[in-house]
């Protein structure tokens, strides 16, 4: 079974909302051919809208997400027979020694055996790329496949802030390939940049904005996948075995409102589409939004006429919050 782009666990993923989002975009945004996915996350928004527009600008500041976008969206030729042979090779490995992943994450985020396999495969991919046995496109596909395969057996609830100590995987690690998107005829540019800087460089018809709104830093939530992607093998500390903090978003701090104002001010688009979930009154300090619905509305109204839509939606819950009548909001602004 090949992994589709939506087949991963990710906090804030819009997969289950995409039918509604797509319908509202098509209803409100007319004569558009280019789409700017400013905080692309899993990439499912661009993937779901791939047949709606011609040009896509896909951005996220996580290294793991950049590799995943390149794997799913890039058009470059690949040798499918070679990829399948490597998949078979990886699923037959056994009797492995300890490595960086098993020493740090074994019997924590993964079983010891699974961690050995993940570490071995990651090192082997590096060697295959350096020896030109695989191309860069093939490397991205295989690395993204490893990230999806590892996430499938991780002892987590969908992020890597902590691991489940009593978790026992129902099925052992199995290496599966991703299923690339059909992007024929599309122009796609992939970025890993600060969104507030990038918006000054990109011109598009629609900007889709789904930034983090609370104190949960995604670079810390997904530090395990980031570490496996970068493969710099830093020293890790703490119970969750985290590296030194990096890529800390201003949207998860008290400066979130000013960052959002700056972002909206510098957008060069016809339409702005913003998603927002109403956890501002959450009992959990990490879940509580740094920007209120009213602040977003006020900032967008200065840019143009804004319609506010909503739909019932179950939010991510770590156990401390019980918000009734929870909704996902969609702001669609027609820029003046």
Walkthrough of the structure:
- Helices cover 35% and strands 13% of the residues.
- The chain is of the alpha/beta class.
- It has one domain: Rossmann fold, CATH 3.40.50.
- The protein starts with 17 loop residues before the first helix and ends with a strand.
- The model is unreliable at 280-287 and 316-321 (pLDDT under 50).
Task: Give a quick set of tags describing it.
single chain, 336 residues, alpha/beta, Rossmann fold, seven-stranded mixed β-sheet
SSE succession: HEHEHHHHHEHEHHHEHEE
Low-confidence segments, ≥5 residues, pLDDT <50?
A: 280-287, 316-321
Assembly classification: single chain
- The percentage helix is 25-40%
Short description:
With 336 residues, the chain is an alpha/beta fold. It has a single domain (15-335), classed as Rossmann fold. The protein contains twelve helices and seven strands.
In terms of topology, how is this protein built?
Blueprint: H1 18-28, E1 34-37, H2 44-48, E2 55-59, H3 63-73, H4 80-91, H5 100-105, H6 112-130, H7 136-153, E3 187-191, H8 195-198, E4 206-209, H9 218-221, H10 223-230, H11 256-266, E5 271-277, H12 293-301, E6 304-312, E7 327-335
Parallel strand pairs: 1-2, 1-4, 2-3, 4-5
Antiparallel strand pairs: 5-7, 6-7
Helix pairs in contact: 3-7, 6-7, 11-12
